[in-house]
């Protein structure tokens, strides 16, 4: 049965039918894993923003055959796009995990995002708009 309201308990299905918890021995490591993934999300987002703020000028590749105006592709743009894709995937998976409606899962992810923000992103200044949604 899928819950449609928040509930507290150790029995949860997280993301996949094969990721079920039915004891403290399976529930606590699952919460720890989600907590760490949420921290990694913030770490990865900070790396992506740093790459966007400080692109290397020496890694520019010209592609005159693709665009008659001689558009430029930089390794920083490609790396930023890859990091954005990875981070978007992680964010949506965290959102789907919260949609299990298990209170412990919700708390673990929100705490992980907060701890990750504290350690990796709280020093952001200027030009970056904070978005509390992990999937944005």
TrEMBL record:
GO molecular function: copper ion transmembrane transporter activity
Entry superkingdom: Eukaryota
Pfam families noted in UniProt: Ctr
InterPro entries (alphabetical): Cop_transporter (IPR007274)
Keywords: Copper, Copper transport, Ion transport, Membrane, Transmembrane, Transmembrane helix, Transport
GO CC annotation terms, alphabetical: plasma membrane
Subcellular location as annotated: Membrane
Residue ranges crossing the lipid bilayer per the database entry: 24-43, 92-120
Similarity comment: Belongs to the copper transporter (Ctr) (TC 1.A.56) family. SLC31A subfamily.
PANTHER family: COPPER TRANSPORT PROTEIN CTR1, SOLUTE CARRIER FAMILY 31 COPPER TRANSPORTERS
Protein name (Swiss-Prot/TrEMBL): Copper transport protein
Organism for this UniProt entry: Lithospermum erythrorhizon (Purple gromwell)
């Amino acid at each position: 049965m899928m819950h449609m309201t928040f509930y507290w308990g150790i029995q949860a299905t997280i993301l996949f039918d094969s990721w079920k918890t039915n004891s403290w021995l399976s529930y606590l490591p699952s919460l720890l894993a989600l907590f760490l993934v949420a921290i990694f999300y913030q770490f990865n987002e900070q790396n992506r923003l740093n790459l966007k703020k400080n692109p290397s000028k020496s890694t520019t590749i010209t592609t005159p055959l693709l665009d008659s105006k001689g558009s430029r592709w930089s390794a920083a743009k490609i790396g930023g796009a890859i990091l954005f894709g990875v981070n978007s995937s992680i964010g949506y998976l965290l959102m789907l995990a919260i949609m299990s409606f298990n209170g412990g899962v919700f708390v673990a992810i929100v705490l992980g995002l907060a701890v990750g923000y504290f350690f990796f992103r709280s020093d952001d200044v200027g030009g970056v708009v904070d978005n509390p949604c992990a999937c944005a």
